[in-house]
Every structure is written in structure tokens, then in C-alpha cells.
Amino acid sequence: MTVWDDLQGQPAVVAQLRQAAMGEGLTHAWLFTGPPGSGRSNAAKAFAAALNCDQDDVTMRGCGTCPACRTILGETHADVVFVRTENVTITIKEARELVSTAGNRPSSARWRIIVVEDADRMTERTTNVLLKAIEEPTPRTIWMLCAPSPADVLVTIRSRCRAVALRLPPAADVAALLVKRDGVDLALAERAARAAQSHVGIARRLARDSEARERRLETVRFPLGLRGITAAVMMADKLVKIATEEATSSNEERDAAEKAALLATLGAPETGTLPPAMRSQVKQLEDDQKRRAKRSITDSLDRTLTDLLSFYRDVLIIQLGNAVELVNVELRSELEEFAQRSGPEVTLARMDAINNARKRITTTNVAPLLAVESMAASLI
Hints:
The protein folds into three domains: about 10-165, Rossmann fold (3-Layer(aba) Sandwich); about 170-210; about 225-380, no CATH class. It is about 60% helix and about 5% strand. The protein is built from 15 helices and five strands.
């Protein structure tokens, strides 16, 4: 086992990072880009582990078994900081704290490493706070920024980073990873990988959660019953409910565990009213969880619309002659019947409507239900 094992379908990236970990082409700032599910944050984490691996032989670094590798992969290493936001954007205050942290020399490792997993969620003002720290780095400090594409990061930052471009791995590689790492049955792993369109995290959830698979299938089948404006409104309402349920189911257990851990840390009494000082900290946690829930619903709705988009993607593939494999193979007969009702131009217009709704939901303050209703009306 090595730190590179989870980077399925990324041989060029693994080779590039292995070489840098051995000291060839190493620089102080890196930009990992790739579509959601490509594994850009996993690549940054693996690279951080390889750079600080305890092995003396540089060719063996990234062993995955030494204390440094294990603690970095577990995100508990003192000299490696992982930054991900539960809010819409990373704040200026958080950026200033990162700059302060980056100015410290590593306590025990070769490098102090800052991994920013949501670099695309920084505003221009926030990014400018980091600019000087990246432009004039502290010795023994390495920055790793992750974003969907280079265009999501200011050019002043982008020009100072070495690019690492990831791609979505083949579905077969994702299925092999699920079988090897999670013990999933091969047939189920292949179906989950295909339905997730090679998004490793989504494929894992689909493989392990039968209810998630049922919710996705329900979403994909919605266009088959779309006959009028009433059906469109009902579909929009159901899509938002599916996304909300999906987000809520993943947040409830996490929220409860976080609150229990905080109360235990504070030494809170098991019964009775909490002291004022404890109440304020619990209130802060609950406020953070509410903000996280809002973003979770937005992200879940975006994923739900991506599943819906796969239906029209398959319709278009059939209309253009079945040049590539379908995502929703189990619906082939229904997809073929649906494809006969219109031409590729209509299908492309419907796909544009879905993508426009996704953009409005993730980048504006529009009410999700209104955006989805407008989209659904365009699909009739």
C-alpha cells in the first residue's frame, strides 16, 4: 500500500508528483485542478504525505505506512493544514490565519504544508491576502490549492503555482477501487461507478446505500412523466425534496457527533441547564452547522440536477448514434423511446436549461425551488 493507491486512472499525475517528492521539479506552490470527483484533494493529500514521508530513500517516499504518512492521510499531522469551508466562501479572517500559520517553520517534518481544498471559494479580496505569502514564501512552506479549473483562481495566484491537471478516471478504475478498498461486489461497483459518472465519492455512496440508489433512479426517471406544467411543478418540488433529504441524512449524524464531542470537551453536565459560557459555544456550533446545512443542500441539489442531466446526456448519445456507452444502461429501452420524440437540438436546449439552473443555484441567492421550477417548465 502507498499513498498513491487511491488515485485511480491518474498515471501522469502520480508520475509528476512522485518525481517532485524525490526533489525533481519541487516548487513552493501547486494548483490541483480537475472536475468534481477527479480526486484533486486526494492528490494533494497524497503529495503532502510523500513530501513528509519518514523514508530515508527518496524513491520510497509515499510509503503509506510510516507515522508521517498515516497522520497526514488521517489529517492529524501538526505540520500539514487542510482547509475546507462549510460556508459559501472562505473569509478574509480565515485567509489571514493561514498566512500566519504558513509563516511558522515546521515543528517536526521537512515541510509545513497548507492544503486549500476550496480555492475556488475565495473572493478576489480574500485571494489577495494570500498573494504575498505565495509570492514570497517562507522557507520550508509549501502551498497546495485545489479548484475545478485554473480559471477559478486569480491569474496572479495561478501564475505562481505549478499546475497539476487531473481528469475523471475511467468507470472501470473507480469500480476496481470500490472492490479493493471497500469490498463492494464487482457488479454493484460497476453500476455505481457508471451512475456516478466516475465521481469516486458519489460512487462509494451509491455502492453502500441502497436508498441513495433509489433516490437517484427516481430523479433520472422524472422526464419520462413530464407531460405538462402541473407535472413540471410537481417534479421541481420533488427534486428539491430529494436533495434536501439527501443532505439532511448525511448531516444529522455528523451534527449530533460534533455536539456530543463539544459537550464532552467542555465538561458539560449530563442534565440541567448549561452555564452561559458553554451555551455560547454550543450556539456557535449550531450556527456553523446551519450554515453547513445550507451549503450541503445546495451541493446536493446540484448533484441531483447532474443526475437528471445524465438522462438527457444518454438521450443525446442515442440520437447521435450510440457512439459511447450510456450512463443509465438499465433505462435503455425507455431512453430510446424518449429519444424518438425529438431531435438533438431540443435535447441540447434542455441540457442548457439544467446547466443554467445549476449555475443560478450555486452562484446566486435565488430560491432553489424557483430556479428548479423554471428549469422544469423548460423541459416540457
